[in-house]
Amino acid sequence: MTALIDIELPGGKPPSVPGVAGTRRARLAAELRAYPNLFVGGALLLVLCSLVVWGQVAPPYNPLAVSGTNQLMPPSAAHWFGTDQFGRDVFSRVLAGVGEDLVIGILVAALALAVGSTIGLFSGYLGGRVDDVVMRAVDMMMSFPSFLLALAIAVVLGNNVRNVVVAVAVAYTPYIVRLTRSTVLSARNADYVLGARAVGASRSRVMTLHVLPNTIGPALVQAFLMAGWAVLDVSGLSFLGVGIQPPSPELGVQIADGAGYITTGQWWVSVFPGLAIVMVVLTVNFLGDYVGEKLRGRG
Amino acid sequence: MLRYVLRRLGLAVITVVGIVVIVFGVTHILPGNPAVVQVGGYANAATLKAVEQQMGVNRPLSAQFWAYLDQLAHGSLGTSFTTGHSVVSDLLQRLPVTVELAVAATIIATIVGVPLGLLAGLREGRLPDWLGRVAAIVGTSIPLYWLGLVLIVVFYVIWHVAPAPSGEVNAFVTMPPTYTHFLVLDSLLAGDWSTFADALGHLALPAITLAVVETAPLLKITRSATLDVVHSDFVRTARAYGLPPLQILREDILRNVATQVLTSLGIVFGYLLGGSILVERIFSWPGMGLYAWNAVTTTTVQAIQGYILTVGLIYVILNLGVDLLYAVVDPRIRFGDSHVQRRPRRRAGVSMRRLVAVRETESTGAV
């Protein structure tokens, strides 16, 4: 990923500030000025990381500790985000939930990337019948909204973290396959590939050492953005009751916990976890927007 | 033209077959036992065996698949044990309710998203562009179901301007006679103004919720389509001839953007059907999504299968309609004139199918 970000842009947008050859810090500052999306995304990422660390190291309360006396308390100095119907501290649960959802999002993206880019590589490079079969399968999987595909798989596999991660990753894989395949197709007859083949490199060597490193870029960016969608979809599944189960502090579970109290005015149980989701996904989307802009500038 | 239509129809049929295979596969091939799902984990072995026998899940896979196809061929999706009706009649009854919500959301999203996207594209790199891009990023970062809850808090709990999230109308409202199965239209046609107002009030919040999330992709698509056109050779030529900017906007830019927006609308609409399960659950909106949610909570496998199959079918039909529409409005496709530059700048050669991944557009750009 870093290799993508650091690409110099001859005649691109205006990041090439005078004195680019300066220190690392100066270059970073110039980059942040030229790309506000990097600035916003980076700042949000820092905040998120500190929240996660806070939640892991020293949360104000145990996120799972119920209390018989402090139920549905509005936000106060003692409980910044109030308490839920079991008297649990919403702020501590949000801290824990952000960590959990981030890990889940990354796992989903990594799984979809690993499986999808492998299939896409084979499909694009081998071509022929393999390619036909794979592309038909991909077309069919993409003829559902991915959320519904994930829902169907999650319902059948059953409710636990591993199954939900698998379900959402399976629903995302076709997007990676299609993307990797199209880049592999355009690289298949590139000079460096022909060169490697001409000196007698085996097919597996060409695929893994030459084609893959040169075509993985767009899929990496896509997978990065998928981490954000995954947070939305996994929490959505949990909200519907087919994802992660209570008493987990997963953010969608928390929103579902509070949904029943919305019309009676106890808004804080649902609203704060949702804000946390927005923040996580915003971070990913802003950074993804930056990386996408960089990648486009290159073409 | 005929060849294109036939080829496209053939593709749609193949996709439908694939959807059937996937829906069957998801419920039968994956390592999970539908019978266990049905009876719960605590049933004894004899009960489980009986249910397995009744559902036929202990038969060979090929036999099960054949039975499933046979059932589908007779136009049946099985019976839901929670409602006691056939899944087909359940879904047909709820389809208009969901479609009404999705249409309302699409109208709102189009009115807001398309002009903003156009403005952003025309003022590339300037303030409207920045605002549009930020709005699109924020719009795609909001969980739909949470947004619905927030709107309820603000407009129902705090400001008391919206009705309670209790479905299509208040319980005591007289229902108009059925003309179109769309309640808002029916009450309007019947001239029943109080029911119309009530239905419209109930429709507002869920429609806005769906619309906010749909505006973002629509804005992105419009912006990138506008950018493509603005940077195209023909617009540059028109400018070089010194044509008035308004004429260029009307005759070159708007026309070309409109075709792309029109066709992407179909896909956005299909995407709404997927999101509607969350929104319907929050607003107790009695459509297909709520039905599916009830099926999920009671693990009524037949109903879940039927719902997913139906949405997949609608998706395919929409895609088909969109591609045919595209051929109607774009003569270059109609006449198969493949060497004509279809999408100028950077997107050249990328097929329309790519728009299927609404979320994918703009995220990676050039491939």
Could you explain the architecture of this structure?
The complex is a heterodimer of chains A (299) and B (367). Chain A is mainly alpha-helical and 299 residues long. Chain A has a domain at 100-298: MetI-like fold. Helices cover 71% and strands 0% of the residues of chain A. Chain A is built from eleven helices and no strands. Chain A has helices spanning 2-5, 24-34, 36-57, 90-126, 128-141, 146-157, 161-187, 191-198, 203-240, 251-259, 268-298. In chain A, helix 2 packs across helix 3. The two termini of chain A are 17 Å apart. Mean pLDDT of chain A is 88; it is low at 1-13. Chain B has 367 residues and is mostly helical. Chain B has one domain: Orthogonal Bundle (MetI-like fold), CATH 1.10.3720.10. Chain B is built from 14 helices and no strands. Chain B has helices at residues 2-28, 34-39, 45-55, 61-73, 87-122, 127-139, 144-158, 183-189, 193-230, 233-240, 245-282, 288-297, 301-329, 331-334. In chain B, helix 7 packs across helix 11 (245-282). Chain B starts with a helix and ends in a 33-residue tail after the last helix. Mean pLDDT of chain B is 81; it is low at 337-367. Chains A and B meet through helix 5, helix 6, helix 7, helix 9 and helix 10 of A and helix 1, helix 6, helix 7, helix 11 and helix 12 of B.
Largest interface: A-B, 65 and 68 residues
User: What class, by secondary structure content of chain A?
Assistant: mainly alpha
Mean pLDDT of chain A: 88
Spans where pLDDT lies below 50 across 5 or more residues of chain A: 1-13
CATH fold-level assignment of the domain at 100-298 in chain A: MetI-like fold
CATH top-level class of chain B: Mainly Alpha
Give the CATH architecture of the domain at 100-298 in chain A: Orthogonal Bundle
- Uncertain spans of chain B: 337-367
